[in-house]
Amino acid sequence: MKLSDKQLELIEQIGIYHENNGFQPAVARVMGLLLVSDKPELTFEEITESLNISKSATSNALNMLLNTGHIEYTTFPGDRKRYFRIRTSNWRDMIMKRMDDLGVLNALLKRVLEVRKRENSEYDQKLLSFTSFLDYMKVQFPILIEQWEKENQKQKA
What's the whole-number mean pLDDT along residues 110-120? Predict the structure, then answer.
């Protein structure tokens, strides 16, 4: 599979973005490749060859992305290969999971404020402001999604 210079550059930029968010380099590049590829699904071999990474790195990256729900695979009758693609249908679930994760962090930070005995009121105020913002987001985010869905439905009509 031949990729253009623009596609290769974008794969790298997407890879760096995902690395900065905790992905391993190969995992990040696989995400980038699956996003920018002209083909909707890619085989294991196409991924390995396009990114010039080892079979082991490809396998580990695909397993991680499958386990975290970022990608899925399909098969075709008469073909034993698996074809991998980005899971675009789960964006809402992924955002809601991130919001749940922020809720856990918020609860932990509130406990920090309860148990800590520091005499640094400026730091405490900043932490309190952050937890207050997370409380606000928890209430407002579902409203924001609902508003977006209503507007999106109007645009489709």
Answer: 83
pTM of the predicted model as reported, rounded to 2 decimal places: 0.74
Q: Is the dihedral of CA 12, 14, 19, 20 positive or negative?
A: positive
The structure tokens listed for 33 are 């490749």
Q: Which residue has the higher pLDDT, 124 or 41?
A: 41
Please calculate the CA angle 93-144-94 and round it to the nearest 5 degrees. Answer: 15
Alpha carbon distance 19, 120 (integer Å): 34
The pair of structure tokens assigned to 150 is 């209503």
Least Cα distance to 27 among 9, 46, 8, 14 occurs for 14
Instruction: State pLDDT tens for residues 86-106.
Output: 998 778 888 888 899 999 999
CATH 1.10.10.10 is held by the domain 5-86: yes
Residue whose C-alpha is closest to residue 41's, from 74, 88, 70 = 74
Q: Where are the domains of the chain?
A: 5-86, 91-156
